[in-house]
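Q: Could you write out the predicted structure for this multi-component system? I'm mainly interested in how the pieces pack against one another.
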Amino acid sequence: EVQLVQSGAEVKRPGESLRISCKGSGYTFTAYWITWVRQMPGKGLEWIGRIDPSDSYTYYRPSFEGHATISVDKSISTAYLQWNSLKASDTAMYYCATPIVGVRYAFDIWGQGTMVTVSS
Amino acid sequence: SELTQDPAVSVALGQTVRITCQGDSLRSYYATWYQQKPGQAPILVLYAKNDRPSGIPDRFSGSSSGNTASLTITGAQAEDEADYYCNSRDSTGNRVVFGGGTKLTVL
């Protein structure tokens, strides 16, 4: 079964660091880009950025560049989204997704989501 | 958002509804459509010109004209009540953008 499995919910304080993960299985992990998507409470979907697991090349939405970092460890088929200094405004559900269907922005496989809560 | 959707649309059970998505990048790239129900991850329902992943009912179809893409549900069912999002590449082609989403209510 093709799937992405994400790490569990996190509760952090402002200024803390965090890394969440997304592990792929059931397909060739390096063949398809991994995308991260944010969904703030009660709001819509926002594309954060993507990584090519074969060469770790990344591309970000401008508002996320410099604040969050996407990385990958292809040896364990896992992608990461990390922050060095969280803000309360980072509170959101974060999804990873991948386009196995073959169109690079048609995400047919999604992780279950990781809820990140940042609160003092 | 570079893609614009109506915030809310309603449809009577069994009737046909069209959800639209507007943006300049749609002149160059197809829209992709997702369904999201409360507490769940999004599900891909339509991609490319008018392709449906396996398991998506054929009452879901797509079309495009100029800068507007449409998702049509022919014979809406109660289980179709959800939020629907479009996405595509942005105008540079290098990034991805999502529309703001449309909340579909089936009456």
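A: Regarding packing and overall arrangement: Residues 76 and 107 of chain A are 21 Å apart (CA to CA).
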